[in-house]
Every structure is written in structure tokens, then in C-alpha cells.
Amino acid sequence: MPELPEVETVRRSLIKHLIGRTIEEVEVFLPKIIRYMEVAQFQESLKNQQFLAIERRGKYLLAHLSKGWTLVVHLGMTGRLYYLPVDKGQPLSSTSLPLTPSSLPLTKGSEAPRHVHAILSLDNGGSLVYHDYRQFGYLTLSRTNETMCLKGLKELGPEPLEDKFSLPVLQRGVQGRKAKIKQLLLDQRLVAGIGNIYADEILFTAGLHPERSGGSLTDAELKKLYRSIRYVLQKGIEFRGTSINDYVDGEGHPGEFQHHLQVYQRTGQACTRCSSVIQRVKVGGRSSHFCPQCQTEPAKI
Prior knowledge:
The chain has six helices and ten strands; from the N terminus they run H-E-H-E-E-E-E-E-E-E-H-H-H-H-E-E. By secondary structure, the protein is α+β, with helices and mostly antiparallel strands. The protein has a four-stranded antiparallel sheet with strand order 1-6-7-5. Helix 1 (4-18) runs parallel beside helix 6 (219-238).
């Protein structure tokens, strides 16, 4: 699932292509990906709207439009949102996108390539394409001043890279909790945007076993965890996200953070720090990868 660094990278890569562009046509090929409103209303409401700004909240993309509406996109497990340039659809990275010149141009009423579920045609001839293999993501529209009241968004905790997410906030959310620290990091009400990949990497950096309970962490360990959350997420953004299966950015380019993973999906391999064998355990039904040697005591960043 795209997590905070991936969604932030998509946001940054789309800004230069979308800001100031006007939506001329809206095609929806899979009605169930439109949530909380009728497809026809979604299509009609988007027409002739101009992109003013693109923000991110947790794992959500929020594209603010000119008539007081916001396009909300959640990429789910395998969603891709990318800009298809003007020249009849030749992808910016033809090796990483599920589109080929033979499947284009994407004209109104034409059959979309497989797994492409929505296309927003823009006034410059380009398109904003939503592709989702497993179909867990969705799009919707909200009045901009009501967007944060939508289900999913209204429950989100603080942004981990903003000032509102402070060490005292983390301490209040974790101390006294019997839940395992891996589960707590995945709780979007505690902190927004962290998923399985970055939770594993954060805990490795902090030197914490994923099965430790939140209430068992000392003040020193919580301080280490706080620093690790911010450090790992910033690194994830710096390397433009993690491309293991499906993720590409808004221009079709894969991320690079998969080349810097310390524990995630490295079961049976040697720890890069101590050479112990990386292990995997189920925590709250999710696979958790860790080093049994490094994650018994706090480790230095």
C-alpha cells in the first residue's frame, strides 16, 4: 500500500502538471471506485473545474478545485494516479506504466486499458489517469470546507513530519497501552500515514522489537522512536518512495527506497548492521520484519 512517502511523492510529481489545468471530460470505467456520491454527479461536478492546489493528509491526496470542491483520492493497496502527457499518451516511463501507444489515444467513449478505472481529460490535451489492479482505492468529491469531515479523514491523527506531532503527543498516545508498538504505529488515529513498510523500518532504526507493548517503552525509548519516525519518513520521501510491486509516482517513475530497506521483506537475509538473520513474525495479522539482535536495545540513528 502506498504510505506517506509514496503519496507525498505522487503529490509533488503531479503539481507541475495539474496546477492551472482545467478538467474538460471525466470518464469512469469502474463505478465502484467512486465513493459517497453517484458517478454521474461526480463526473458533472468535475467538469470545467481548475486545479488550484494539491495537498496530502496521511495517505490521502486532496486536489483543491476552483469551484469550492476537493477531489479526494485514496490509492488503497495498488492504486496509481499519474499524468499522461499531451503526445497521444506515450507514458513518461513506458516500462513502468500499464499503457502502450497501441492502447491510445484515450478518447471519450473508448475502451480503457486494463485496470484503468478513471480518466480526467485536461484542457492541454493531457490526462490524469487512475489505475488500480486490486480496486481497493477510491475517488470522491467533497466541498472543500467539509473535506476533513469525510470518513477516514476525520479520524486521522497528526502528521508525523509537522510540528503538531511532538514527543509529548507520541508519549500520550503510547504510554500505558497494552497494544504492541507495531500495531500502534499502524493506527492512523495515533499518527497519520505510516503503513507496514515504514513501521518495520522505524522500529529497526529505533532498536525496538515489534512485539513490545506501548506501555513498556521507557522515556528514552520513546524519544528514540519519535526521532526514528521522522528520520525514516524523511528518508522515504528523499528517495521518492518504495517500489516493490505496484507503486510509481505521478509521472510513472518508480521510487528508490526499496534499495535502502533494512528489514522489510528481508526475512532470512543478513542484517546490514550486525549480520544476524532477519526474522518475520505476525503482529496483529501483519507480517513484521526485524533483527533479533539489533531490536532488543535502542540503536543510534
